[in-house]
Specification:
Blueprint: H1 5-8, H2 16-22, H3 25-29, H4 46-50, E1 82-86, E2 89-90, H5 93-105, H6 109-124, H7 129-132, E3 139-142, H8 147-153, H9 157-169, E4 177-179, H10 191-198, E5 202-204, E6 211-219, H11 223-234, E7 239-247, H12 260-263, H13 268-275
Parallel strand pairs: 1-7, 2-7, 3-6, 6-7
Antiparallel strand pairs: 4-5
The structure holds zinc ion (ZN) (2 copies).
């Protein structure tokens, strides 16, 4: 894909062998480097911070999709088994590059960097506010890689994010799910094809608490998270909420989201830390 992440990345991580070796090497070699471009600046350099799209309120109460006003659900809401969803960023530009590095090169610092933003997306405008307090005695779990994929990569990006988010929220993190069917790449499949390929792909390993937080790196249409939430509900969960580091959306976001520093009071300082803005 010309102009995509692979064309622009300054770091060369090509074969699976190199990937394994690179796991955590990036953390050692590039401490405090921009998660988007690898140049100076943490967590994002000023140029990358400008290109980050922040998904803040007002918007959909269920999935956090920014809109001009507040609604209870929207066209981008994840499937039914996911009770609610939150993500701090749109999956594009520097955020996409950062998550690709976390996923394929095991740049662990990325998980710690995203955790405060994910926490903020949750607590800034708590999803389904009256029930949020129940989560104070809940657990955090994640959408697991299959055993083969995990072995190949040596690293599960969703687990790394879940552990970092759980630390922020002060909740225990528990491996509750296992992937019993390994699916191929999802990117080129349609929504219906994804859902079909994923049916029954996850199983709960233990009885979950009634309310819990599921973590993944990216929310696209929610087919994977929906299957996980369904498996957890079959095992006894009542309300499964989803937190991802970023998400893609079916239509453009309001202009305010593209000007995060000016428009989102709470999140601006976090971005400023990296960009060393004014
Ligand atoms: Zn950068
Ligand atoms: Zn929604």
């Amino acid at each position: 894909m010309a102009g995509g992440w692979s064309a622009r990345r300054p770091l060369s991580v090509a074969s699976p062998t190199v990937l394994r070796v690179s796991t955590s090497l990036l953390d050692v070699l590039l401490p405090g480097r921009c998660l988007g471009c690898g140049r100076a600046g943490w967590p994002f350099c000023e140029a990358c911070a400008e290109r980050v799209t922040v998904l803040g309120p007002p918007g959909c109460r269920r999935c956090g999709r920014p809109l001009e006003g507040t609604v209870d659900r929207c066209a981008d809401c994840p499937p039914g088994p996911v009770a609610w969803a939150r993500a701090p960023f749109l999956y594009e530009g520097p955020v996409r590059q950062a998550l690709m590095r976390l996923k394929f090169a095991g740049w662990r610092s990325g998980a710690a960097a995203f955790a405060p933003w994910m926490e903020e997306a949750l607590l800034d405008e708590p999803p389904l506010a009256p029930s949020w307090r129940r989560y104070s005695w809940s657990v955090v779990t994640w959408v697991p890689l299959g055993r083969r994929r995990r072995r190949e990569r040596g690293f599960d990006q969703a687990e790394a994010l879940a552990r970092a988010v759980a630390r922020r929220l002060g909740l225990p993190v528990v491996r509750l799910l296992e992937r019993v069917v390994e699916t191929g790449p999802q990117a080129r499949r349609s929504g219906a094809e994804r859902r079909e390929a994923l049916r029954g792909a996850f199983r709960a390993r233990a009885r979950p608490p009634p309310w819990l937080v599921l973590v993944d790196d990216v929310l696209t249409r929610g087919a994977t998270a929906g299957e996980c939430a369904q498996a957890l509900r079959i095992a006894g969960a009542v309300d499964v909420g989803l937190v991802t580091a970023a998400r893609s959306l079916g239509s453009p976001v309001p202009a305010r989201c593209r000007d995060p520093v000016r428009s989102t009071g709470l999140r601006a300082p976090v971005l400023r830390v990296g960009g060393r803005r004014r």
